[in-house]
Known about the structure:
Protein name: Phospholipid N-methyltransferase
Helix content: 25-40%
Largest sheet: 7 strands, mixed
Strand content: 15-25%
Domain Methyltransferase: 43-140
Pfam families: Methyltransf_25
CATH superfamily: Vaccinia Virus protein VP39
Radius of gyration: 15 Å
Organism: Algoriphagus winogradskyi
Number of helices: 8
InterPro entries: Methyltransf_25, SAM-dependent_MTases_sf
Number of strands: 7
Order of helices and strands: HHHEHEHEHEHEHEE
Amino acid sequence: MGKSGLLLELYSNLGTTGAVTFSSKTLVKKMLTHVDFKGAKLIIELGGGDGSITKGIVSKLAPDAELLVFEISKSFCESMEKEFPQKNVRIINDSAENIGRYIEGRKADYVLSSLPFSFFSPELKDQILSQAKISLSQSGQFIQICYSYLLKNLFKKHFSSVNTSFTLKNIPPAFVMVCN
């Protein structure tokens, strides 16, 4: 699927994509500065979308590490499966609330998310964040891109520490929240 097809998918499903455009390279770079790729063995991405963040992760992923990408759009999944044929990258066409079905008792070092929590029901927000927290190792981190600083309160309900940074170099400007 070309970039125009991906944009059509983005705008057609605004309630699940939650974005008016794809994440900028600057935003992806800012998010990934919080990840220690040398020590990471399992990384989970929630909301793969067009693969902007996935591409950044894959470029730094250790050969013995694994990336699980959750995406509910079949079109986005098909596009990402073509773009990321690596054996250590698994594109999963399922909701993020079902992480536990796929990690087979393992613990992730990082859960990276660009999910549009502002559009989700309170129940779905709590289910996804509970599953993300359960799936993390003791020292693991949940890292979220979002457009509203108010979401920090939601993340504080599930994580004891939430650190925030901001970038103007994205449309719209965005926050990166790192949760432990």
